[in-house]
Amino acid sequence: MPAISLKLNGRSVTAEVEAxxxxxxxxxxxxxxxxxxxxxxxxxxxxxxxxxDGRSVKSCTMLAVEADGREVTTIEGLAAADGxxxxxxxxFREHHGLQCGFCTPGMVMSATExxxxxxxxxEREIREWLEGNLCRCTGYHNIVxxxxxxxxxxxx
Amino acid sequence: MAQDxxxxxxxxxxxxxxxxxxxxxxxxxxxxxQAWAAFVRSPHAHARxxxxxxEAARKAPGVVAVLTGADLAADKxxxxxxxxxIHSKDGSPMVEPGHPALVADKVRxxxxxxxxxxxxxxxxxxxxxGLVEVEYQELAAAVTVTQAVAPGAPLVxxxxxxxxxxxxxxxxxxxxxxxxxxxxxxxxxxxxxxxxIPNAMEPRAAIGEFDRATGDLTLWTTSQNPHLIRxxxxxxxxxxxxxxxxxxxxxxxxxxGSKIFHYAEDFTVLWAARKIGRPVKWTNTxxxxxxxxxxxxxxxxxxxxALDKDGKFLGLRERTLANMGAYLSQFAPSxxxxxxxxxxxxxxxxxAIYAEVRAVxxxxxxxxxxxxxxxxxASYLLERIVDVAAREMGIDRVEIRRRxxxxxxxxxxxxxxxxxxxxxxxxxxxxEALKRSDWAGFEKRRAExxxxxxxxxxxxxxxxxxxxxxxSAVVGALGGRVGLWExxxxxxxxxxxxxxxxxxxxxxxxxxxxxxxxxxEKLGIPFDNVEVVHGDTAKSAFAMGxxxxxxxAVGGSAIVQAVDKIVAKGRxxxxxxxxAGEGDVEFRDGKFTVKGTDRSKSFGEVAxxxxxxxxxxxxxxxxLEEGAVYDPKNFTFPxxxxxxxxxxxxxxxxxxxxxxxxxxxxxxxxxxxxxEGQVHGGVTQGIGQALLEEALYDDTSGQLLxxxxxxxNMPRAADVPSFRVGTKVTACTHNPLGxxxxxxxxxxxxxxxxxxxxxxxxxxxxxxxxxxxxxxxxALRTARKA
Lengths: 156, 786
Ligand code: FES
Ligand code: FES
Known about the structure:
The complex is a heterodimer.
Chain A: E1 3-8, E2 11-16, H1 23-30, E3 49-52, E4 55-58, E5 71-73, H2 87-94, H3 104-117, H4 123-129, H5 141-153
Parallel strand pairs in A: 1-5
Antiparallel strand pairs in A: 1-2, 3-4, 3-5
Helix pairs in contact in A: 2-5, 3-5
Chain B: H1 15-19, E1 35-41, E2 47-53, H2 55-59, E3 63-68, H3 69-75, E4 79-80, E5 99-100, E6 106-107, E7 113-119, H4 122-129, E8 133-138, H5 145-149, E9 164-171, H6 173-181, E10 185-193, E11 205-211, E12 216-221, H7 226-237, E13 245-248, H8 264-276, E14 280-283, H9 286-292, E15 299-307, E16 313-325, E17 352-361, H10 375-393, H11 397-404, E18 413-414, E19 420-421, H12 426-436, H13 442-451, E20 455-464, H14 472-477, E21 486-492, E22 498-502, H15 511-523, E23 530-533, H16 551-578, E24 585-588, E25 591-594, E26 600-602, H17 603-611, E27 625-630, E28 639-648, E29 655-665, H18 672-692, E30 724-727, H19 745-762, H20 773-785
Parallel strand pairs in B: 1-14, 12-13, 16-17, 22-23, 29-30
Antiparallel strand pairs in B: 1-7, 2-6, 2-8, 3-7, 4-5, 9-17, 10-15, 11-12, 11-14, 15-16, 18-19, 20-28, 21-22, 21-27, 24-25, 25-26, 28-29
Helix pairs in contact in B: 10-19, 15-16, 18-19
């Protein structure tokens, strides 16, 4: 089995993985980071979104071996060490951008990249950016509000 | 009002764990020594099982066990029961075929479970499942309701003649016929309420565990009502003693009805765990979820409305074929009957109504309650035919509704279809929605859109629905096999903080927050001093769980009753401490005070005294913990008005919702932020039904064509606008909080508003849901030719 090392939420991690192991499987099943969710098997829901080298990636579409030598951030790595929520996390709470919480980690990771890349993004841009993330609970209204609020702070 | 009590938009207690990846959903749980299950599912809609060969699978790496329908039959377990008995017109009981968790004789829908493989790892289980060889003899399938009732149709169950489960009716036929006979105008409409797939974002999952040393069984499952699952497992499917079985539904990622039911997989993992003596875990794939989660809606309806010359409704007739799918899911029989036709009066004074509903088996996934359950089907047919009537009689759409509204002075109002509405003000929600949507200014927007080559339309719906079902005795009389009360236990700790144990379950509804607000308000203690516990039969007392927007109306009422008992006991303790008569002590703002004095004891002091009873009333039990059960006195009746504005691209048929206003009367509001969120979500599911979503079967092979998020269009962020949402309040008169329920209103009020808007935009009489670009484009073309 190939051994890989990656930087995961700021810490160095090495693991032996099967060639076919998906990144999401490595995170959830081997490393116990269950905040990243699996909502489909056709890479269409975005529940599994994480950051790889700062870009959002559906971790169900990436092999664990492809993460070798790269920097991976999951929802568990977003808040500050003292527990302070990131601006996007805080905005989701402030604007009730989550109900059951299942889509939330993916939504937050995806939105975080948008806010970092495009501070000041408007409603249309946000809605289009979130095309890859399904939410069945919120009707997106409050998610969009939250992302807009976070975008105005200009910090993900 | 306390700052953090009833009416405050408190931020949610749930959020921190969900936002930091610390939620605990079933698939996040792993048990020591656990094995994995994978199911062998039928690839055919209808086929006899000739043989099931398991040798190759048994020899595959990591395989622990392979179990089939024959094993199930040998153990005499695993028949999933129906929870509601409907009688046909002629008095005969519905045809009630059992639903085996693993089938042995014949498969009845694509996805039907034939065998389960248990292996060391998930991948090994899935791979070995592919090695189970099932020899089938294919049979012709009855896929749609229309096919299923046609003469000579293949029979899904031999005992169900003409595939009929029941042929039911409601209302006064003679009176309705008489109303039609004297009508100045009769409007008729044929419509389809499209079949939907709930698709909560968390796929179902379950872990069964058996402790040989103690005989204890535990099931972790993605359920909206763990107690009901435990009861069904104990009394029907597994036959184990209820006190040795614990069912835990931890964080659950959405349900919308689809996680109410006792599914085959819940039973199977527990049964397998007991057989092999190891925990057995199973998580659905989304592809399997499409074929194994209960679907929703699927009605084919003919409706007729009789009016006098002024547009007053005289009578309504409905004839519906309701698809049950291949088996009866638990609440399926109640959905097109008592949850549907009883709502046919809507907001209107229609004096005579008659409904005939025939429930039909087909070779498709079972159909059961999905957000709204029967009521969206009622609001849709009603609000569609009212619009058509307005159009054909040349009466304004808003005016015809107003003319027929039940007036505020008429409550309580007895409808001709069994329900008695307690309160409402339909004109108030209508007025507010018209104002907020700028209904009056619409024609200007239409003209402006025309300038851009777009067809703009506006649609309205005024609906009423029924929640918080219902006095248990009434439920029983209507065929329900359960009570529909709810429990609450309030444990006051010695230092005055509180833990609430509720029988309801939160899977997005925010009970941890709303219920804490409720207790904070009633006991005058800080919101942060209340913890809400739910979802574990080992913690909460037996109760009925969450569906039908019942958690606050029924569960919240039980909380109020328990809190009242706490206050009553606290008053005794305080009176003793204050050396006053019990009747002279009042409780307000967290303090027991001797009336007309400033002598008082805080809630915390009283709680502490209850646990350290050194100076204590003689004969009173120490401790401060009370339980209560609330059995509702009636349904609650949320109502409201939804206005939808769409733009249609005439070249492509694409419909964009450009404005949506919802003004709902959900009774007293505890947390407006949460209420609005529920409406947003419900409306989006309604827009999904109206424009995007459809569970589509190939009507020959019975293959599910929309079997993934590729073929089944879920609403995405760009498919919906930002919403204008508001509330108007008339209090429910028969529960202590005056609340009505908000979980389903969005999905009930919105589909007809959307379709009415589309019809208005393109100038057609009717268009079936979903109004896809192709359907709209074809309708436009036909209209142009005509
Ligand atoms: S799990 Fe659905 S996109 Fe990855
Ligand atoms: S919050 Fe439940 S799916 Fe988005």
